[in-house]
Write a structure and sequence with these properties.
It is a single chain. By secondary structure, this protein is α/β, with parallel strands linked by helices. The chain has 3 helices and 6 strands. It has a 6-stranded mixed sheet with strand order 1-3-4-5-6-2. A hairpin with a 2-residue loop joins β3 and β4. The two termini are 19 Å apart.
């Protein structure tokens, strides 16, 4: 998968983790999720709701290109937005809002709210 992110994402460990979350989402990287998810984070996908496995199964290997536009973090909160292109050529705008278990750089992802909109 082609992956692009802004150069400032390496400015803090939390920014890097949030950017890597978007990459892992695009690649359906279960290893990353195993390392960074708390026991079973709540994951709401809007519009509508889906479980973590639904989100991953629907995207497994389908995203060919992912571009991060912005990453914002503060304390135990982080967000990332961007665009994705699927292998079939469909475009998708996404935004993920993450809440970590703590503000420490080792805090795990406790919940995610994702917005996915076709372009």
């Amino acid at each position: 998968m082609k992956f692009e992110m802004p150069g400032n994402c390496g400015n803090s460990p939390r920014m890097q983790t949030v950017a890597e979350f978007a990459r892992a989402w695009g690649e359906a990287d279960s290893e990353f999720f195993g390392e960074w998810f708390s026991e079973e984070p709540a994951w709401a996908v809007l519009p509508g709701e889906a479980s973590t496995s639904d989100v991953m199964n629907n995207l497994r290997g389908d995203i060919e290109e992912l571009q991060i536009l912005d990453v914002v973090t503060h304390g135990k909160f982080g967000s990332v937005d961007g665009t994705a292109r699927t292998k079939s050529g469909d475009r998708l705008h996404f935004a993920h809002f993450l809440v970590f278990t703590s503000a420490a750089k080792s805090g795990k992802i406790a919940s995610i709210r994702s917005y996915l909109v076709g372009a």
